[in-house]
Design a protein that fits this description.
Layout (H helix, E strand, L loop, with lengths): L1 H22 L8 H25 L1 H7 L1 H14 L4 E8 L7 H22 L3 E8 L4 E7 L6 H4 L3 H12 L3 E6 L5 E7 L1 H10 L1
């Protein structure tokens, strides 16, 4: 999907942007300001589409790494003014170099972010990546309205997040309640996974 967005919709917006650049000299003076605003909107849409396509493209996520991919997503949220988002990195990111696991962890966080934006009515969202010697501990927190865990566990979103965590033997814990915001904790033992892979 990411590649399709980039190649198809992206190409259409690129052509529209070029055509508007060509037409700029022919626009009457009284329409200049409106035309310029519209051209900028098309340009911004193209930039946003390219950023979004990268977050949907697994190869890009694998090559960029988890930290950079999450940082890009946080920047996108702030640029769109959807929420006041931030990322904090602790420890040594060089300890974690697994591409496939990066994709899985990123998809879990994408689902978490999506739920926060859609339902939480939150004004802030924070992700902390803590690279310890043996584990990557990810914490995601919002200050939203929270939700009832029992009801949410019946939905596909939370099930998908848990299932993805299980694929890489990561501990998954989500804490929330009505009116109390949300806290997601993922503990991925990457050194243990590395040793298991090496034995095979």
């Amino acid at each position: 999907m990411g590649q399709e967005l980039h190649d198809n919709v992206g190409q259409i917006l690129s052509v529209a942007n070029m055509n508007m650049s060509i037409l700029a000299m022919q626009v009457p003076a009284d329409l200049k300001e409106s035309f310029t605003d519209t051209k900028q909107a098309v340009k911004d849409s193209l930039s946003e589409l390219r950023a979004l396509s990268k977050t949907l493209n697994s190869d890009v996520i694998s090559n960029r790494g988890l930290q950079e991919s999450i940082s890009s997503e946080i920047n996108r949220l702030n640029k769109l003014k959807l929420i006041d988002a931030s990322i904090e990195v602790k420890g040594n990111p060089a300890l974690f170099t697994e591409g496939k696991q990066s994709i899985i962890l990123f998809r879990i966080l994408q689902e978490c972010i999506s739920n926060t934006i859609k339902y939480a009515k939150a004004t802030s969202f924070q992700i902390v990546l803590n690279f310890t010697q043996d584990h990557l501990i990810i914490t995601a927190i919002d200050n939203g309205i929270g939700f009832d865990i029992a009801s949410a566990e019946k939905g596909s979103g939370l099930i998908n997040m848990r299932n993805r965590a299980e694929l890489i033997n990561a501990q998954f814990k989500l804490t929330t309640a009505n009116g109390q915001g949300m806290k997601l904790e993922i503990n991925y033992p990457y050194q243990e996974a590395f040793k298991s892979s090496f034995k095979k």
